[in-house]
């Protein structure tokens, strides 16, 4: 897993480098469109671009070096973990084997005592230890109780080691799982904060659009009282609207299943994802997370950021094309220009009462 993260780091760096190159070329072309009389601005801008490109190249080089070092360290970390697990398993196997050898020694001492019909020091203690040990000893140990051959000891140690390896790996994975859960909780807290900030930003932007619409409407009523003003939401693309509706239905379905403790995957004959099992165990937290996450995606799908102005179905301004809102003076100038064109086409006359203005905006 660690090596894959390092590989993804190189891929991310390539993507960022491609984006930088594309943006650099766009800026260079944009500087080339500046009027020749203002060549000083072009020269200065291209000088800044040269410095920026040099800094970016050094940054990429240092990042590649760090990524390569990180990849090597991650590989070494994997090897070190494997060696630690191997060493721990060897230690457990040796300890278990020492216990077995001590039990065999005690049994030999008791046998000598019986043969010689004499007591040895600590005989009662040895008997008690043997009683407790023989309850736990396996059939294999009973068969090899008095066998001290090297090959038998090696096989015994290998068996102990094989069992210990899985137990140690399970313990290590459990510790890593706890760390990852804590990291996920911290990341989710940051994501929720970002989503709430984005949500409030969308509301603020929507309020700004509404204020601009009201301001423009008041300008029309003041300067062109004959015009009627109509405001409506700019429709998002059809596929985004369908995706938002499907997402809303899935959200409600999963919320109901989580609250009622039902598993739709079992009903459908599919394997239950671990995420859904966690959601069933943490209903309140998972419902809140699902609600905010799905709402943020729905808002993103339904939001267009548009502020389009039409007069008699003729577009006067498009924020989607220009990237910004018009000023009040620009808005009045656009209406005056449109009025002059209408009067020219219609044969003159100041009457513009037949026109209607529709300002379409989306929050």
TrEMBL record:
Gene3D superfamilies: Glutaredoxin. GO terms for molecular function: transmembrane transporter binding. NCBIfam families: CXXU_selWTH. The keyword RNA-binding does not apply. It holds the Pfam family Rdx. GO terms for biological process: negative regulation of protein localization to cell surface. GO terms for cellular component: Golgi apparatus; membrane; trans-Golgi network transport vesicle. InterPro entries: GOPC, Selenoprotein_Rdx-typ, Thioredoxin-like_sf. The lineage of its organism: Eukaryota, Metazoa, Spiralia, Gnathifera, Rotifera. This is Uncharacterized protein. Keywords: Redox-active center. PANTHER family: GOLGI-ASSOCIATED PDZ AND COILED-COIL MOTIF-CONTAINING (PTHR16528), GOLGI-ASSOCIATED PDZ AND COILED-COIL MOTIF-CONTAINING PROTEIN (PTHR16528:SF2).
């Amino acid at each position: 897993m660690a090596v894959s993260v390092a590989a993804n780091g190189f891929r991310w760096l390539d993507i960022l480098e491609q984006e930088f190159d594309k943006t650099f070329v766009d800026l260079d072309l944009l500087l080339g469109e500046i009027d020749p009389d203002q060549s000083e601005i072009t020269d200065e801008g291209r000088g800044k671009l040269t410095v920026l490109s040099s800094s970016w190249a050094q940054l990429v080089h240092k990042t590649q070096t760090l990524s390569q070092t990180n990849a090597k360290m991650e590989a070494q970390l994997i090897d070190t973990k494997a060696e630690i697990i191997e060493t721990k398993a060897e230690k457990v196997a040796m300890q278990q084997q020492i216990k077995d050898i001590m039990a065999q020694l005690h049994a030999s001492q008791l046998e000598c005592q019986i043969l010689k019909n004499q007591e040895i020091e600590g005989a009662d203690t040895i008997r008690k230890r043997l009683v407790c040990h023989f309850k736990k000893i396996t059939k294999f140990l009973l068969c090899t109780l008095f066998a001290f051959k090297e090959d038998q000891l090696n096989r015994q140690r290998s068996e102990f080691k094989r069992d210990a390896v899985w137990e140690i790996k399970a313990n290590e994975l459990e510790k890593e799982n706890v760390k990852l859960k804590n990291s996920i909780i911290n990341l989710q807290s940051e994501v929720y904060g970002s989503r709430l900030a984005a949500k409030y930003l969308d509301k603020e932007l929507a309020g700004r659009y509404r204020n601009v619409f009201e301001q423009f409407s008041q300008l029309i009523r003041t300067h062109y009282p004959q015009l009627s003003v109509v405001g409506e939401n700019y429709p998002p693309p059809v596929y985004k609207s369908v995706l938002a509706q499907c997402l809303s239905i899935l959200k409600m379905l999963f919320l109901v299943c989580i609250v009622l403790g039902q598993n739709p995957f079992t009903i459908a004959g599919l394997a239950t994802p671990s995420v859904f099992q966690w959601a069933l165990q943490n209903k309140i937290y998972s419902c809140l997370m699902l609600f905010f996450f799905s709402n943020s995606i729905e808002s993103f799908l339904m939001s267009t950021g548009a502020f389009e102005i039409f007069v008699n179905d003729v577009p006067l301004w498009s924020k989607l094309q220009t990237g910004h809102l018009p000023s009040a003076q620009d808005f009045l100038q656009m209406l005056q220009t449109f009025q002059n064109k209408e009067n020219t086409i219609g044969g003159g006359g100041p009457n513009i009462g037949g026109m209607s203005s529709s300002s379409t905006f989306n929050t």
